């Protein structure tokens, strides 16, 4: 008898079948229709496994349609602590799983795609295990560009990084100009 059938749900069985998101009231036929993305989680990146459009890609973009049900099934490949978190464009958590560390353990995240969804990460490794969620369709399917495509969402951290780069380039130039002006002023005083 399986761990589930006996009525005793072990920690491993729980982690293996963990479902996060708005699943209350969903029938089994709705769940069966949900498209499934399969990923492998390791410190270096999320590794796409299925469908074929994301297979073998590191941190693949998950293309979803607003209002549709989706599942992400991911496996802990390296035995390091990982979890799966869906964020909006302002880095607010929309959905997340518990952190699991057991190599080979899997988690399933079921969600309805919404226009707010922007990316998915591992909370423990947010700089390497990070992928985009691209939303299309639906009544509120994101901002439409002039060409009819979904507009690009830029996170506040990206703006901050761009400002830092601009300052890093401009500040030495401004400093050199300041030294030139000060140096020019000193020479005119000495000539008199």
From TrEMBL:
InterPro entries: BlueCu_1, Cupredoxin, TAT_signal. The chain crosses the membrane at residues 157-182. SUPFAM superfamilies: Cupredoxins. One of its GO terms (molecular function) is electron transfer activity. Keywords: Copper, Membrane, Metal-binding, Transmembrane, Transmembrane helix. Pfam families: Copper-bind. It comes from the Archaea. Residues 60-135 form the Blue (type 1) copper domain. This is Blue (type 1) copper domain-containing protein. It comes from Haladaptatus pallidirubidus.
């Amino acid at each position: 008898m399986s761990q589930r059938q006996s009525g005793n749900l072990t920690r491993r069985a729980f982690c293996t079948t963990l479902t996060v998101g708005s699943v209350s009231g969903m029938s089994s036929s709705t769940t069966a229709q949900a498209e499934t993305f399969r990923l492998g989680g390791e410190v270096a990146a999320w590794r796409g496994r299925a469908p074929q459009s994301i297979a073998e890609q590191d941190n693949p973009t998950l293309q979803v349609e607003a209002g549709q049900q989706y599942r992400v099934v991911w496996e802990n490949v390296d035995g390091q602590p990982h979890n799966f978190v869906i964020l909006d464009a302002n880095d607010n958590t929309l959905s997340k799983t518990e952190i699991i560390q057991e190599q080979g353990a899997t988690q399933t995240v079921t969600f309805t795609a919404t226009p707010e969804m922007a990316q998915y990460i591992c909370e423990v490794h947010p700089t390497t295990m990070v992928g985009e969620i691209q939303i299309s369709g639906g009544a509120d399917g994101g901002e439409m560009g002039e060409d009819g495509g979904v507009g690009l969402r830029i996170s506040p951290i990206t703006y901050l990084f761009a400002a830092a780069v601009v300052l890093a380039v401009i500040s030495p130039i401004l400093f050199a100009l300041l030294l030139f002006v000060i140096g020019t002023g000193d020479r005119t005083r000495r000539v008199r």
